[in-house]
Hints:
GO molecular function, one term: hydrolase activity, acting on carbon-nitrogen (but not peptide) bonds
Domain NodB homology: 39-285
CATH architecture: Alpha-Beta Barrel
InterPro entries: Glyco_hydro/deAcase_b/a-brl, NODB_dom, PgdA-like
Number of domains: 1
Pfam families: Polysacc_deac_1
Protein name: Polysaccharide deacetylase
Amino acid sequence: MFVEKIEWPEGKKCAVMITINLNAELFWLQLDPECENMPKTLSLGQYGMKRGLNRILDILKERNIKGTFFVPGWIAENYGDKIIEIREQEHEIASLGYRHENMALLSEAEQDEVIKKSISAIEKSCGVKPRGFRSPEGELTMDTLRIAKNNGLCYSSNLSDDDRPYYNDLGNDMELLEIPIHWVNYDLPYFAFNYKPAFPAGQGRIANYTGVLSNWKDEFYGCHDYGLCYVLQLDPQAIGAPGRIGMLEDLLDYMEELGNVWYATGTQMLNYFEESKLEKSKETR
Length: 285
C-alpha cells in the first residue's frame, strides 16, 4: 500500500512522540464519583504519581528524550510539585481537561469553562500556558476542538483517522493541527483493572507484558518503514510498575536499534508543520 511520506527534520525516517497522561485518581473518579470514598480504588491512580512518574522521568532523562505530559487542571492544582518537577526537566505540559470530563456530554459553555479552568490551573502551577490539547478517555465533539482553538490551544492529539499529523478543518476558516493517536499504543487499556467499579466491565484482563511490548514494536516497525508518526501514550499508574517499566526501556532500545528517529514534543511537531506550511505558502506565490 502506498502511503505519502513526510519529510521529517534532518532527513529522519520517522517521528516519535512520547506522551504521558497524568490521569492519577481522576480516571477512577470519572468511572464512578463514589470512588471518592474508596481509598483502595483511588490508590491505583495515586500510585502513578507517587512511584510510577519518577520511573518514567528517570528513563527519559537517561536518554535525553523530551516527553509531552497531558495534565488535567485538577492534577496541576493537587500535584503542583510534580508538575514543577516535570517542567524543570524541560518536558512539555499540555492540557487534558480539568477533571477528566467526558466533553461530549457537556454543553459548549460548559466545555469552554472546563478548558479555561484547565489552562488557568496549569499556568498557575508551573507558569506555562499549554499549547496542546487532549480530551480525556470519553468522547469529544467538533465543538470541543473549536473551543480549544478559540482558547489558544494550538494542536490536538485526539483522533485516530491517520498516522501522520495533519491540519483538521474545523469550519469557519479555522484549522487545528491534529497529531493522531491509536489505542494499540496506549498502556492503560491493557493494564488498568479494578473490581469495583469494574474495569474493564467484563473483567478478564491484565494483558501479557511480552505480548503488549510486541504490539508496540510491531506498530513502531510499521511507522518506521512507512515514514510515519508514532505516538505512544503512557499512564504512570500502568507503565510505572516495576515489572512494566522495563517495557518502555525495551521499546526505546528497539527504536534506537532501527535508528534515524526524530523524537519530538507536541509543540516541536507543531512548529515544524507551521514552518513547512509557511514554506509551501511562499512557493505557491
